[in-house]
Design goal:
By secondary structure, this protein is of the alpha/beta class. It contains six helices and five strands, in the order αβαβαβαβαβα. The chain has one domain: Rossmann fold. Helix 3 runs parallel beside helix 4 and helix 4 packs parallel to helix 5. The longest helix is centred in the last third of the chain and has 42 residues.
Length: about 160
């Protein structure tokens, strides 16, 4: 059985990136009962800074933001090997088919349109965080197995 549990989800860090303070406050209020650590960014450049400083497990990202759009932010995060595994949930008032396609092409993991339904938000956040934590656990196990294999090969070499 995995050490992963719903309890570990509550230790998660979520970055809410939206240039509208009221939208940030609403998303924060919707997630308040979940005990997540929440960070905020109010433009595209600040979002990228917060990704480095805050190290979120999930990003709720608006598309229409100053300095860099959500599309640009998403592309930068997904093109960096250090941050590409952070799930991105685009939260936006845009809901045309080409907006969704553009978000997916930029690398987003899921998409929610405003006005956001609280149950849908919480369900998608929980699902994306589960994937994030399972991916982290898998990566730790693979690194451990590689280390075990390496030390086993060194032992075999020294026995020869």
């Amino acid at each position: 059985m995995s050490k992963f549990s719903e309890t570990s989800l509550s230790d998660s860090k979520i970055l809410i990136a939206d240039d509208n303070v009221q939208n940030c406050e609403l998303l924060d209020a919707y997630l308040a009962t979940e005990d997540y650590e929440i960070g905020f960014a109010y433009d595209g450049e600040q979002t990228l800074e917060q990704v480095s400083e805050f190290a979120p497990d999930l990003i709720l990202l608006d598309i229409m933001m100053p300095k860099l759009s959500g599309y640009e932010v998403c592309q930068k995060i997904k093109s960096d090997s250090k941050t590409r595994s952070i799930p991105i949930l685009m939260v936006t008032a845009l809901n045309e088919k080409n907006d969704i396609e553009k978000a997916v092409q930029a690398g987003c993991d899921d998409f929610l349109t405003k006005p956001v339904n609280q149950l849908e938000l919480k369900t998608r956040v929980r699902s994306l965080l589960r994937v994030r934590h399972l991916t982290n656990e898998r990566d730790r196990l693979l690194a451990y197995l590689a280390e075990v294999e390496k030390s086993g090969q060194e032992t075999n070499t020294s026995d020869s």
